[in-house]
């Protein structure tokens, strides 16, 4: 398991009546029952497998936090926090996979620290680097260990995604397509939208293995079509550098002429088409919908054409739907309120 792309922090928002359907996962509520088991995965050690048919957008696991390590934290201070955990938790963490060769550091560790624990100090650091999920907090980034989620193996076309959770500290893994009973659950350790050569290099250098999923196997028919899709997607991102800022938002939208906005809207549509062609890429659509929404609103402000407002409403609806899948409730509520205002023709503050 990797230090994955940081999750967006949930922002507080007031509750408003919603006209949008909730995802299948949210009907599970507090009575959620795990639909997975951990067992041997051929050639990969342990893995996570579905125990029953699991529909798209349903939760696979809600895994409680086992240990948190702040980014940049001194590794000895980290270890001192680790030894305060229950014995069973410590034992289970130390059983997690190690991505690098853990050397004998006893000769270089300061003698003020217990020498018998020197090995575990550095092993814990390695385990964290190999298995932790990166979670964004108000005080900074933390690598967080979840004992079940850490057993999920990699695929460049995973069938499950990490989603934000509302304040419980649990890590939620959600199906991004229908998963059959007895099928292995996978996630991506890296940027899955990168071309094969980049993916393989990162996996080899950091985790020491070569991915053999259908997207990476040159002999698999899917690999060629998916690679073409990713290269086309990469071109759209390169082309967007002139009109999007680092957060993926439209630069100086109020200064764009209508014809130029039309062209940018076409680029967003092409990117959306590419992202929705395969289940493993759909988690990126929310940012694209938001960018396209800004373009549609900018077009409407220039000419007040009703069709531009309708396009903006549709894009905002798609954004909210994506947020309900990947970010759950809180982050979508402010956009629901905005939707209600736009339906009334109120574009103040947009």
From TrEMBL:
Q: Where is the SET domain?
A: 34-190
Q: Which InterPro entries match?
A: SET_dom (IPR001214), SET_dom_sf (IPR046341), SET_domain_protein (IPR053185), TPR-like_helical_dom_sf (IPR011990)
* Pfam families referenced in this protein's UniProt entry, alphabetically: SET
Q: Which SUPFAM superfamilies match?
A: SET domain (SSF82199)
The protein's superkingdom reads Eukaryota
Record's PANTHER family? SET DOMAIN-CONTAINING PROTEIN 5
Q: What is this protein called?
A: SET domain-containing protein
């Amino acid at each position: 398991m990797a230090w994955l792309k940081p999750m967006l922090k949930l922002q507080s928002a007031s509750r408003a009546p919603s006209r949008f359907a909730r995802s299948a996962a949210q009907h599970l509520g507090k009575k959620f029952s795990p639909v997975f088991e951990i067992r041997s995965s051929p050639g990969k050690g342990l893995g996570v497998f579905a125990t029953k048919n699991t529909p798209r957008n349903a939760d696979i696991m809600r895994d409680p936090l086992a240990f948190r390590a702040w980014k940049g934290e001194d590794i000895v201070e980290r270890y001192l926090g680790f030894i305060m955990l229950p014995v069973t938790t410590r034992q289970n963490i130390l059983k997690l996979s190690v991505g690098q060769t853990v050397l004998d550091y006893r000769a270089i560790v300061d003698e003020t620290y217990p020498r018998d624990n020197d090995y575990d100090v550095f092993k814990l650091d390695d385990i964290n680097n190999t298995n932790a999920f990166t979670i964004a907090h108000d005080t900074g980034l933390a690598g967080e260990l979840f004992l079940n989620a850490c057993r999920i193996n990699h695929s460049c076309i995973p069938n499950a995604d990490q989603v934000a959770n509302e304040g419980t500290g649990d890590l939620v893994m959600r199906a991004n397509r229908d998963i059959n009973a007895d099928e292995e659950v996978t996630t991506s350790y890296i940027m899955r939208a990168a071309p094969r050569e980049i993916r393989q290099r990162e996996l080899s250098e950091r985790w020491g293995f070569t991915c053999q999923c259908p997207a990476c196997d040159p002999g698999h028919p899917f690999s060629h079509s998916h690679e073409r899709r990713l290269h086309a997607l990469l071109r759209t991102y390169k082309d967007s550098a002139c009109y999007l800022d680092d957060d993926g938002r439209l630069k100086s939208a109020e200064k764009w002429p209508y014809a130029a906005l039309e062209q940018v809207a076409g680029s967003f549509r092409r990117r959306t088409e590419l992202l929705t062609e395969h289940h493993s890429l759909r988690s990126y659509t929310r940012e694209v919908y938001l960018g396209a929404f800004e373009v549609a609103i900018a077009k409407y402000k220039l000419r007040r054409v009703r069709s531009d407002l309708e396009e903006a409403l549709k894009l905002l609806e798609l954004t909210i739907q994506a947020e309900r899948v990947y970010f759950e409730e809180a982050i979508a509520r402010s956009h629901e309120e905005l939707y209600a205002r736009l339906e009334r023709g109120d574009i103040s503050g947009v």
